[in-house]
Design a protein that fits this description.
The chain is an all-alpha fold. Helices cover 84% and strands 0% of the residues. The mean pLDDT is 93.
Amino acid sequence: MNAAHFHLLVNHLPLAGLLFGLLLLVGATLFNSKPVTNTAYLILILAAVLVFPAYFSGEGAEHTLMDKVEGIEKSLIHEHEEAALISFILTLIVGALAGVTLFINSGKKKENKFLVYLLMIVGLFALASIAQVAKLGGEIRHTEIR
């Protein structure tokens, strides 16, 4: 397995984590389920942890592609990298906010809804951002989607 293969394996995990964590959080909030809400927080925290290998494996993937594949446009990789940094930061914010919300709401019967809704909003921005990063990453090798 080379660096590009590893990057392709791990870069989908934060996207899936954000998507499933947010969907679970919305459902748990609608049905007022504290155990499911806590599970959603943990999935969002996990997504923030998994963004590290996804982000930091990108450099090795870039070098592998530039060394082994002809016709790769450096400008596309640069655009992907720039967008990835924003998504990296947003996903870390979501994970931190999920951790804080879990901590604050864990001992209470009534949740702090402001934090839950703030987490949903920031999570949607992070999800939109990371989806854009995935699209830009796909465009590096798949000319048919440009």
